[in-house]
Amino acid sequence: MIAELRSSVAHLLAVDLATGEISEEDEHHLFRVLRARDGEAVSLTDGRGQWRLARVISGAVMPEGEISFIEAPAPLEIFIAIPKADRPEWIVQKLTEIGVTRICWLHTERSVVRWTSDRAAKQLERLRKVALAAAMQSRRVWLPLIEGPVAAASVLADIAICEPGGRSLVAGDQRLGIGPEGGWSPDEIALSAQQIALGPGILRVETAAVVAASVLGHLRNTNRPES
C-alpha cells in the first residue's frame, strides 16, 4: 500500500477531487468524530482510481500536491446467493476490505431470500453505502460494483462455482459463484463453467465468500512477479 494512503488520518470520497470538496457527512466525521487537527494529512479519492493528498488547515480540507492515478486491480468478482437477515451487509463489508472488485447477488433455484425490484433498489443503495465506508476504511481508490439480483442460470456458464469435490483455486480465477445454504441444484451445477472446492466441509454463504476471496487474493499476491 502507498505510504501516504496508509498514514492519512482519514480517507474520503471527494465531491470534487480538484478542489478537495467533501460531503457534509464526511466533514462532520472528520472534524467532529475523528477530531482532525490542523496539519494532519487526509487522502481523497474519486473512487475510480484517482487520488490525492490534502491537509487540514483552519478547519478545512485543502488539496496538496498533484492528483495521482492507480490502475484498476485485476477483476475479482463474487456472484453470491442472497443470504438471510443482515448478512449481506457483513459480506459486502468484508469483501470490500479484501479487495473484491464486483459483488453480484443471485437468485438461485434453492434461494430462500429473493428481492423484488423495489426491495432490490433499496438494498443495493444501502449496500453501496456499506461498500463505500469499507473502501474508505481500507484505503481503496477503486470502489467495488454492487449489482443484482440476477437469475443464477444467466451467469453460471461464465463463472466457477464453489462446490465440494471441485478443483482447487488458482491465481487466474476471476469470477466465483457462492450458492445458497441449501447448495446449488443439480441443474445449476451442470450449467456452471467449473466447480471449485474450498475445503472438505460445507461452509455458510458468508464464510465461503470470504474464504474464496481471501484465498484467491493470497494466490495472486504469491504469484505476482517481482519487480
Quick summary of this structure?
By secondary structure, this protein is α/β, with parallel strands linked by helices. The protein is built from six helices and ten strands; from the N terminus they run αβαββββαβαβββαβα.
Which class do the helix and strand fractions yield? alpha/beta
Q: Calculate the mean pLDDT score and round it.
A: 95
> What is the terminal-to-terminal distance?
15 Å
Uncertain stretches: none
Report on this model:
The chain has 227 residues and is α/β, with parallel strands linked by helices. It folds into two domains: 3-69, Hypothetical PUA domain-like, domain 1 (Ribosomal Protein L25, Chain P); 77-222, SPOUT methyltransferase, trefoil knot domain (Alpha/beta knot, 3-Layer(aba) Sandwich). It is 32% helix and 26% strand. It contains six helices and ten strands; from the N terminus they run αβαββββαβαβββαβα. It has helices spanning 3-7, 24-33, 87-98, 117-137, 186-191, 205-222, and strands at residues 10-13, 41-45, 50-57, 60-69, 77-81, 102-107, 145-151, 160-167, 175-178, 194-196. The chain has a six-stranded parallel sheet, covered by helices on one side. Strands 1-2-3-4 form a four-stranded mixed sheet. β5, α3 (87-98) and β6 (102-107) form a beta-alpha-beta unit. The protein is elongated and about 65 Å long. The model has no long low-confidence stretch (mean pLDDT 95).
